[in-house]
Amino acid sequence: MITNDTQRTADRAVHDVVVVGAGAAGLNAALILGRARRRVVVVDAGEPRNAPAAHLHGFLSRDGLPPATLLELGRAEITRYGVRLVRGRVGRIDHGYSVSMVGGQVLDARRVLVATGLRDELPNIPGVRERWGKDVLHCPYCHAYEVRDQPLAVLGTHPAAVHQALLLRQWSDDVVFFPHTLDLTAEDRDRLAARGLRIVEGGIERLVVEGDRLRGIELTDGRAVPRVAAFLFPRMVPHDDLLTRLGCGKDGSGLVSTDRSGRTGVAGVWAAGNVVDPRAQVITAAGMGAAAAFAINTDLLDEDVDRALEQRRAQAATTR
């Protein structure tokens, strides 16, 4: 269980690593670092991206598990290795590294891992937000099997919707693409037709919901197309303010740049999970957290060895 910690003097003790964010990436990193006997504290605001989803999929041995249960299990595991969990929101990270929480607490660390994830910006279509994670879905690999062989819709609210629709054809013979505000090219239309997808023109007015279930897509001209589930591609906005304020650079796609271990361009700072890879699934994010943990521990080890050498040489010099 994550608790509020008001022991300021304890908080100002220097931790080996402060992990910001307790999703799959942050928890898996904390697990490995805790098992490496590092002093680790994890700070989390308790707002996981996948909270609306009933189950997660594609995670070996955890397929079908509720996301909240995965996080609960993860929190229990890391506390067994002495990792401390703090409920709260980080407002700023300073070089050095001081992690300042909203409310005044400050956590000092030798290294920092940011695993703050992202938020999904949804289109302003009535019914979308209410059904998000239920029968309005995003990832075919995560959710399409559960609605296989049923009438599906793909909403054209993002350029990636065309690929999403082509992919969904693997799970159902009845997929309707609604361009909505998306300007389809002739090539797009040819590819959709070649895969046997039907295109229904016109703006989307709302999602038809009855009996706590999606029933169809209503267009602005009054037509309604019956569907049992709808897929859309949200605008994914990484929670990367902490990183950019530190001076972490971004790549050509607008994401914070890291190497394969999650190391950013700022010394001592790593990032993992959806904050640097919006397309990463839960199992991928967990792997990114593991990779970051290995690299962070190695970096700390190098520093520990350098310090030990300095002390050894200093002691040798005093005994001459």
UniProtKB/TrEMBL annotation:
Catalytic activity: [thioredoxin]-dithiol + NADP(+) = [thioredoxin]-disulfide + NADPH + H(+)
Family annotation (InterPro entries): FAD/NAD-bd_sf, FAD/NAD-binding_dom, Ferredoxin-NADP_redctase_2
GO MF annotation list: thioredoxin-disulfide reductase (NADPH) activity
Domain of life where this protein originates: Bacteria
A Pfam family matched in the record: Pyr_redox_2
Gene3D superfamilies given in the database record: FAD/NAD(P)-binding domain
Protein keywords: Flavoprotein, Oxidoreductase
Domain FAD/NAD(P)-binding: 15-287
Protein name, entry field: NAD(P)/FAD-dependent oxidoreductase
Organism placement in taxonomy: Bacteria, Bacillati, Actinomycetota, Actinomycetes, Streptosporangiales
